[in-house]
Description:
Alpha-Beta Plaits
Amino acid sequence: MGKLMVKEKNISAMEQTAMRVSRVSIAVNLLLSIAKLGAGILASSGAMISDAVHSASDVFSTILVMIGIHFSGKEADREHPYGHERMECVAAILLAAVLAVTGYKIGLSGVQKIVTGHYESLAVPGVLALAAAVVSVAIKEWMYWYTRYYAKKINSSALMADAWHHRSDSLSSVGAFVGILGARMGFPVMDPLASVVICLFILKAAVDIFRDAIDKMVDKACDPAVEKELREFVLGQQGVQGVDLLRTRTFGSRIYVDVDITADGNLTLTEAHKIAERVHDGIEKQFDQVKHIMVHVNPC
Length: 300
């Protein structure tokens, strides 16, 4: 019971961290959206107004993250005896879809402007829009690294997807800056060209997030380096003479472990059980990502 309570506390702490990061994200995006919208209107910049709408859409994506992480942290019940961790993967997949749609629309708009030549008729934007784009890039890059840091710390695929959404907004602002600068220098075609390049970056991020979430939903083995560390840890436990089998599978952001160890065949059942328990408890204590361990003892 004590071990279970420790695991539940760890999950609760992870959820609290994710929610805190998400609240910061929502606050920053709301303020940034308002500022960019104002700058776009005052400086007659369609690119900056579009960028403001993109930042506003990040609020929706962050709410998706909060919902996914909240449900993934729910305790196991009769209908879901293995817990709800995969809800976080569902949130990451939805975010990947949002990113893909965002990238597609940005790229399509750029291609259409290039083909039709509509960029020639756009008004020359003011310096305020240029300054707003620079500020937006700086803030969104900071949000990317801030969110990415905590996503890695708590191993959250949904939070990592949200970090990449911040990066997509930063790239969008880079495109807006290039377009605005190009328009002021007499090269308005730079705006749609930049949009097409940014589209490719965003689509790649969406594909990477989608693949990672799918891997975690189909019981893919964890990283080979983690398996090596697990094997070495098990072999280092008193009474363990070998490892016959070690299998891992990811379940959301958590890991399930099945291990067959060898021990002295002359031990009593009670003594063999104590060795298995030592391995089980040691792994739970040493590896925070591990949710469940099954240890089987074979006679040497």
